[in-house]
Design brief:
heterodimer, A: about 60% helix, elongated, B: about 290 residues, 4 strands, about 5% strand
Chain lengths: ~475, ~290
């Protein structure tokens, strides 16, 4: 039978429950800015006295509202955003090598080379003019060398960075495996392991910035983390990711399971920093490098052919101005002034034949005229046009990657907002909760006072 | 979560503002090629055309000096022949003694020497009348024998065919042009020394031919100069056109740049105000 005494118990339970609510609200507010913190929800339940309809309140298990599908979408969007960001960073570096619009770059030295041919036609016998041709040729070659070397160096740096990233991936995978184990142990011991789950979420989110991540829970209730299409972590077992070079010189990602079997997962790495690094190195840098090689090869070959047809002041024909390989491969990195003319301005062929020496200038005119001839890109573009194509391509790549950064960043931010509205701490909501628990607590105190007063009156009437 | 969105939009506005600031400050909208890939490529191509026009103008300047010098030398040669002719007419006068004619002959020899040194004039790119033999005096100082060739000095100043800027010494001074100028002077000098009035009178036709030949050559040199000048002014116009096209492609429109800058500043201020409002709106501040 419910009586005044049970009212006391009810007040006690109410005080406990409401102060628990205050505790949890406090915890939520305290962790409003903690990364990976999922807000806790207090569940209060009625508790009947025996089988009667009256009863009191009791505290149910804490809830941690998460949505695995939303989390998975977040991992994906973060991976794509981070991949675009990394590619954009790398392309910004490449673009800085092509600073032609601000008055530097290869086009300036190309123009200077052709200008010096024009000047040579005016003064074919002037040693200063000849020296200028030589130094402009050397300058053009060394600019190409520098640019090609910077690109090669950047490719090396990207490999180093990718190795660093795989170390982080492996660290995260190991941590996730450990957390899985701890969560399993805690759950078996009847704990709710919410803190560990928060940490696990943070780790997976961190992992998703490095590689495309997909998660699901297997039949045993273990969290399975897939990275780059392969299982990185299952339960407490983590695989090891490594990066190396494939036979064709491109980046290759290999996942080694603890059993020792290795899988080439290169084709499946589509998100995260690793994908951005691979895209930058094996697509952007490689293609820009090849375009630059082709440009260097075309210019050097055309200039060489014309130059070799003329005669130096010593009457000797057949000298090349540039030394260049037999094919475009690595041309930009290896182009140099040919040893037969390097340091010997008199060997520059301004005249078309030894008969017109020393005043003959027709070969210099022909060399200068190359500036307007479409010999590059398979005979369709002039030297300047061919270079502007390379520059335009670099700029286009950078512009697209910058767009991708904005677009994917926006998507990621949107998914994050959705995730936060599901799992994050809303201070407004906590404020309302705080007030509501506070008022309920005050009311419970009132119930206690009332019960006490009534009991006191009862006592007094009995004693008198 | 509202803070994330606010922070993101603030960050985006701030970076846009920084970009607009660079554009307004440098006057170029291509500080990074990726701002406009197509315009950047075009800008570089225009830069090459501009550089070529610059190079050609400077080539013209280099050869213009020699062309002027050649024209002046030939005009001097025409004067010398005219002087020789007046000496011939003077020598043909019957009243003169043999000694007088010998004196005139010495004067003619002097004119011939001067003529040879004129024909051996050296310009910035070497001897002017030696064809491609720019490093050796094309005419022998005593005999006047020609050792040059017919090589033309062609230069790169645009146009579909290479432009020749030299003046042929062979055409101006030797029998290749019809009359050996030095021989005509020698003939007069010999006739004066020989005190042969008929021969003196006969030498005048040779001098006339020499004069015509030199005037023709001078005319050629004058044409070359005119060609250089007109090419130069055409290239000057081209430079202006390319430059204006280049700035149309690459330069920031100052009005647009500044208005977008101030617009972005306003947007940024608004965004800051909105963010502040969002932060103030928290339930905590209402209680």
């Amino acid at each position: 039978m419910a009586g005044l005494t049970s009212l006391l118990y009810t007040a006690r339970d109410a005080l406990t429950a409401q102060s628990y609510g205050l505790d949890v609200t406090g915890q939520n507010i305290a962790n409003a800015n903690t990364p990976g913190y999922v807000r806790r929800q207090v569940v209060l339940q009625t508790q009947a006295f025996g089988n009667q309809t009256t009863g009191t309140v009791q505290v149910g298990p804490l809830q941690r509202p998460t949505d695995v599908f939303l989390d998975d979408r977040r991992y994906e969007s973060t991976g794509l955003s981070s991949s675009a960001g990394e590619e954009d960073n790398q392309l910004a570096n490449v673009q800085s090598l092509f600073n032609d619009t601000t008055g530097g770059g290869i086009s300036t030295s190309l123009d200077a080379l052709f200008s010096s041919f024009s000047a040579l036609s005016a003064s074919p016998n002037d040693s200063t003019t000849r020296q200028t041709v030589l130094s402009n040729a050397a300058n053009f070659a060394s600019q190409l060398n520098d640019t090609a070397n910077s690109i090669a160096q950047q490719k090396t740096d990207i490999m180093t960075e990718a190795k660093g990233v795989t170390v982080q991936v492996n660290q995260d995978a190991t941590d996730i495996a450990k957390l899985n184990q701890q969560i399993a142990t805690a759950t078996a011991a009847g704990q709710d392991a919410a803190d560990l789950k928060d940490q696990l979420g943070t780790k997976v989110q961190d992992l998703s910035t490095f590689i495309n991540v997909h998660t699901f829970t297997d039949n045993q209730g273990n969290l399975v983390v897939q990275g780059g299409g392969t299982t990185l972590v299952q339960g407490d077992v983590a695989s090891t990711l490594s990066v190396g070079l494939a036979t064709d010189g491109t980046m290759q990602f290999t996942a080694a399971s603890q059993g020792g079997s290795s899988t080439d997962i290169t084709a499946y790495v589509t998100g995260g920093k690793l994908a951005g690094l691979k895209q930058a190195r094996d697509t952007d840098l490689t293609q820009v490098g090849q375009e630059l090689d082709q440009f260097a090869y075309d210019v050097a070959t055309a200039v060489n052919t014309q130059h070799a047809s003329g005669a130096g002041l010593d009457g000797v024909s057949g000298r090349n101005l540039f030394s260049i390989g037999a094919s475009a491969t690595d041309a930009a990195r290896t182009i140099a002034v040919d040893p037969s003319v390097a340091g010997q301005p008199n060997n520059i062929a301004a005249a078309s034949s030894s008969a017109s020496l020393p005043g003959g200038s027709d070969n210099a005119v022909a060399l200068a005229a190359l500036a307007n001839q479409s010999f590059a890109s398979g005979g369709t573009r002039t030297a300047s046009e061919a270079y502007s194509d390379v520059l335009g391509d670099v700029a286009q790549r950078k512009a697209s990657s910058a767009n991708a950064v904005t677009l994917r960043g926006d998507v990621d931010a949107q998914v994050k907002t959705m995730q936060q509205s599901q799992s994050g701490v809303s201070l407004d909501e906590e404020m309302v909760n705080l007030t509501s628990y506070q008022r309920a607590y005050e009311a419970a105190t009132k119930v206690l006072t009332t019960a006490d007063t009534l009991l006191g009156e009862l006592m007094n009437s009995v004693t008198t | 979560m509202q803070y994330d969105a606010a922070l993101r939009s603030l960050g985006s506005l701030a970076s846009q503002q920084a970009e607009a600031q660079t554009e307004a400050a440098t006057g170029s909208r291509l500080t990074s090629p990726s701002n406009d890939p197509i315009a950047s490529a075009e800008y570089v191509r225009l830069q090459s055309s501009l550089s070529q026009a610059n190079a050609r103008r400077s080539t013209i300047q280099t050869v213009q000096g020699d062309a002027t010098l050649a024209e002046g030398s030939l005009s001097q040669g025409v004067d010398l022949v005219a002087q020789a002719k007046s000496l011939a007419i003077q020598g043909a006068n019957g009243t003169l003694s043999a000694a007088d004619r010998a004196t005139l002959a010495k004067q003619v020899d002097g004119l011939r020497d001067t003529m040879i040194s004129i024909a051996n004039t050296k310009g910035a790119s070497g001897y002017l009348f030696g064809g491609s033999q720019t490093q050796t005096a094309p005419f022998d100082a005593t005999t006047g024998a020609y050792s040059g060739d017919n090589g033309e000095h062609v230069v790169d100043i645009g146009g579909s065919t290479p432009t020749s800027v030299g003046t042929s010494g062979a055409q101006a001074f030797t029998t290749a042009g019809g009359q050996d100028v030095f021989a005509a002077l020698s003939t007069l000098s010999d006739a004066l020394n020989a005190n042969d009035v008929t021969a003196i009178s006969g030498s005048v036709s040779g001098l006339d031919a020499a004069s015509t030949q030199l005037v023709n050559a001078q005319g050629q040199a004058g044409l070359t100069m005119a060609k250089l000048t007109s090419s130069d002014s055409a290239l000057g116009l081209l430079q202006t056109r390319i430059s204006s096209q280049q700035s149309a492609v690459g330069a920031a429109d100052p009005v647009a740049a500044y208005s977008s800058l101030s617009q972005l500043s306003t947007s940024l201020q608004n965004a800051v105000a909105v963010t502040k409002q969002i932060l103030d709106n928290s339930a905590f501040n209402r209680f």
